[in-house]
Amino acid sequence: MSVRIALSILALALLPVTSSLPARADDSAEKAKAVKDEGGKYYDADGTPTYKIENGMVDWYTFSGYRRYHSDCHVCHGQDGTGSSYAPALVNSLKTMDYGTFLSTVAEGRKDVGGGKENVMPAFGDNKNVYCYLDDIYIYLRARADGAAPRGRPPKHEDKPQAAKDYEASCMGSN
User: Fold this and answer.
1) Contact of 153 with 65, CB cutoff 8 Å
2) Using CA atoms, how far apart are residues 90 and 80, in angstroms rounded to an integer?
3) Which of 38, 94, 129, 174 has its CA 20 to 30 A from that of 164?
């Protein structure tokens, strides 16, 4: 089974859970609060991957998401998710986009045609440099959307947890 299909199935499985949740609004930072830690990866009360930032130090996944976003996504979506003339500001999109929709959009892509303009988000479901780090990218953009992470490279971050090392090796095929 291709990775794109597997990611799409995962995203569709998550949609019943996440689409029933209210849109993240002004209380988004409170909803994003980390309540569970699984080997250095944090989750909110709904089980959605989230960030943990304390005293200017970000968790590993937020830092990794910053790096991964700026290796593949910023070309279209602008520095720090602020958008460009080519693609929307993801710091705005993530204020209302749920996790399942994010996974699905990145894996499958999206095409919007309207108002004499065509916007195309290519599918990244077969790009290991993106799909192996989808959670990291989501976590970083969620922190940016909530105003918890400022623009620019995070100055301090937690060490890379063993779980992240193991997952990366497995996903990238070096294990």
Assistant:
1) no
2) 9
3) 94
